[in-house]
Automatic annotation (TrEMBL):
It comes from the Eukaryota. It holds the Pfam family Zn_ribbon_GRF. GO terms for molecular function: zinc ion binding. It comes from Artemisia annua (Sweet wormwood). This is GRF-type domain-containing protein.
Amino acid sequence: MGNLCGCGEIAKCRTSWTQFNPGRRFLCCPNFMDPTRNCNYFRWVDGPLPNRWYQGTMYQLHVNLVNAQDQVVQANNQHSRIAFYNRVLIVLILGMFLVKFI
Ligand SMILES: [Zn+2]
């Protein structure tokens, strides 16, 4: 059975990605998203990180991952825009041919 928070609900396990505790799991209130219901229950699941090198490396890897994910989202958006303009161009070109040959 899981740990209960102050609301009597099973605590939610999440992972910290702060500079000081990157990759360290903790338990918190499952209502943490709603400030009016959050009981502020908090408890570390993992012990402290082994050293500063590990802490810095984990944090940097996470920052790199977030940046890479942002770049993928931006590339997908750009691709969607280009695909849209390509369709508009095709319709325009087809329209020009139709006008010419009717
Ligand atoms: Zn709670």
